[in-house]
Design a protein that fits this description.
The protein has 25 helices and seven strands. It has a three-stranded antiparallel sheet with strand order 1-2-3. Strands 4-7 form a two-stranded antiparallel ribbon. Strands 5-6 form a two-stranded antiparallel sheet. One of its GO terms (cellular component) is membrane.
């Protein structure tokens, strides 16, 4: 018969020495009856021993290996219990605040309104990519092809967004053009400089088309081939092995150098009219940082009638508001004649672009010609693909937390990366001049609106697709005055830099070892590309293809800095905690459970149809992008997961 007596066992988390001075911390556990498990007592987290516990010093304290093993088990059990309790509290708090969860379907008018908002948040960042590339493609500011490229990238972003939310990771996450490819793409275009303007003016229409499409086809080929790596990584489930070597000290220089290396472009745009550029920067800072938490009255249709609600407008669309006000200022100055002819801030300089753009046009693959593949371009873009993979995985976890979903399991992450790889391949095939990646700013919109429904993002994808079919929509964004774009670039590129540096939050920055790895990687990632661009003829190996490869790679800051960070952080001696690897990998461990250990809530990552069939197929257990994936070590025979 089990005894009802209660006893207290005190374990000493220090040396098993009997001296009280050698006991820095005590853990108390309560044993009820003859139960085998030890339950943590209310005093479990007491940092100093009580008087009663001090009297127990030297009485029956376990010694040697048994003591250490017992101590480790108890510490681990307490830590797991604390983590579980905190996670339940945070999840419950998040779910309580959400208006709509991942699986919920808001009314259609709500989906349209919020979907349009997501579109407005991503479109400016997306169309800024062709805005940057078209001058290097030898396209003049007034050429209609600029609008067609902008419409194409919006169109492809819509397709990939819809596919990602429906069949990919199935989280409310927006896909758009990635700035991570800009570094290597600019290096590729540096190998094909534009001829003098006088020579361009003497070309026929067909000759000019051949001039700029040749450069676009080189970009297309590099993006298409490099995207295959991303597709393979997702399809094979190799992400776990990849992340073992990609640490915070690899991610920080790689992503931050994207922003650092683009400052000359932002500066040149702002220099066209520093007054308007400064106005844009100030407006964006005020809206996003100072007024972000200020609610504004807005009309709301609720329960059959219109009422006045409050929305955080400045936090939701600060870029749209800043561009709109700065653009209106440019229009007023132009109308008043205060801006001289030829000033980049004038709003009447490129109106012909809108007039020449078609109302309706369907983008199609290889519309600029067949992609041309070069080894140098492909290897350079691979650095952007790796950065995109790591950034997207972080976005998946952040989006799941904000949307009230469980941490994405391995099959969902695999499928998300696979879908982004396919999307990047489509972006290259269609000739957008970029790949696709997840957009962090739209995840922030989910947190603000408290609407985590994937249906809203599916509506946003359809809106992008429809806008991409209307050529004049893309043309409107192309005619934004250049200094306004420069002001936006200053803020956007600085945010990209800070996102990279945020990976250092778990790294011990007081460690000389870490400071060396970080500083050397960033500094060299800036210095080497600058020297190579100033002395392009210095790299001569005797093999033209190798010279071209080295020129592209060493001209790409993120490649140089990322490779140095990868090499140094994985070879220079340092503890896992010092390098930030312990905390970095801890966030991935929740999703590395076996399917039978995952909660039923993870069913939100199941495919929208066909699950009953997949669960009956044994082969589906070994396909990393299917929800039935149980790992390569799954036993042969039998069906998949139970329903």
């Amino acid at each position: 018969m089990a005894s009802n007596r209660t006893s207290v066992t005190t374990l000493y988390a220090g040396s098993p020495d009997s001296s009280p001075a050698s006991v820095p911390r005590m853990l108390s556990y309560t044993r009820t009856g003859d139960a085998a498990d030890l339950q943590p007592d209310a005093r479990s987290h007491t940092m100093a021993p009580t008087a009663l516990e001090m009297t127990e010093v030297g009485r029956g304290v376990p010694e040697g290996e048994d003591f250490r093993r017992t101590q480790q088990q108890m510490d681990k059990k307490l830590k797991e219990e604390d983590q579980r309790r905190k996670k339940e509290e945070m999840d419950g708090h998040m779910e309580e605040k959400l208006l709509y969860g991942v699986e919920d379907n808001p009314p259609w008018y709500t989906c349209i309104m919020l979907g349009l908002q997501h579109y407005l948040m991503m479109v400016e960042s997306t169309v800024s990519i062709p805005y940057l590339l078209t001058p290097l493609l030898c396209l003049p500011p007034h050429h209609a092809a600029r609008a067609l490229i902008a419409s194409t990238i919006i169109f492809v972003s819509g397709i990939v967004t819809f596919v990602q939310t429906t069949f990919g990771v199935r989280l409310p996450i927006v896909q758009g053009g990635t700035h991570g490819f800009l570094g290597p793409i600019l290096s590729i275009l540096a190998l094909l400089p534009c001829p003098p303007q006088a020579e361009i003016d003497g070309l026929t229409e067909d000759e000019f088309t051949q001039l700029w499409t040749l450069r676009m086809r080189n970009i297309q080929g590099a993006i298409c081939v490099a995207s295959i790596f991303q597709v393979v990584v997702g399809a094979t489930g190799a992400i776990g092995g990849l992340l073992r070597w990609i640490t915070p000290l690899v991610i920080a220089p790689t992503i931050s150098l994207i922003g650092f290396s683009l400052y000359p472009i932002a500066t040149s745009k702002c220099a066209s009219n520093w007054g308007i550029a400064s106005l844009t920067i100030v407006l964006l800072i005020v809206f996003s940082q100072y007024l972000g938490e200020v609610p504004m009255p807005v009309p709301v249709y609720r329960q059959g009638r219109w009422t006045v609600g409050r929305a955080y407008v400045f936090k939701l669309i600060p870029v749209v508001l800043a561009v709109g006000l700065a653009w209106a200022t440019c229009w007023a100055l132009t109308a008043a004649g205060l801006l001289p002819e030829g000033d980049a801030a004038r709003t009447d300089a490129r109106l012909a672009v809108v007039a020449d753009a078609p109302w309706f046009r369907v983008p199609y693959p290889c519309q600029w010609g067949a992609p041309q593949v070069t080894l140098a371009g492909t290897v350079g873009v691979l650095a952007g693909v790796l950065a995109s993979i790591v950034e997207s995985i972080g976005d998946y976890y952040a989006c799941a937390r904000i949307a009230g979903a469980p941490p994405p399991p391995p099959h969902a992450i695999n499928r998300g990366i696979f879908t982004e790889g396919v999307g990047t391949f489509l972006a290259g095939l269609y000739g957008t001049g970029s790949g696709t990646t997840s957009y962090s700013q739209n995840i922030g919109a989910v947190a603000v609106t408290k609407v985590g429904s994937r249906r809203v993002i599916q509506y946003a994808g359809v809106i992008m697709l429809l806008c991409g079919l209307m050529g004049k929509v893309g043309a409107v964004f192309i005619i934004i005055p250049e200094p306004i774009i420069g002001g936006i670039f200053v803020v956007v590129f600085s945010m990209i830099t800070s996102v990279g540096l945020s990976a250092l939050q778990h790294v011990v920055l007081s460690s000389p070892r870490n400071l060396f790895v970080l500083g050397f990687s960033v500094f060299t990632g800036l210095a080497v590309p600058m020297w190579v661009k100033q002395h392009p003829g210095s790299l001569r190996t005797g093999v033209a293809e190798l010279d071209q490869l080295l020129l592209v790679l060493l001209s790409t800051s993120m490649f140089v800095g990322g490779c140095l960070g990868f090499l140094l952080d994985n070879t220079v001696p340092g503890t896992a905690r010092e390098r930030g690897v312990v905390q970095w990998r801890a966030q991935l461990q929740q999703s590395q459970q076996q399917p039978q250990q995952q909660s039923e809530a993870s069913q939100c990552y199941d495919l929208p149809f066909g699950m009953s069939l997949l669960r009956r197929c044994a082969w589906a257990q070994r396909v990393p992008i299917l929800p039935t994936f149980r790992g390569w070590g799954a036993p042969r025979g039998g069906g998949g997961q139970g329903a």
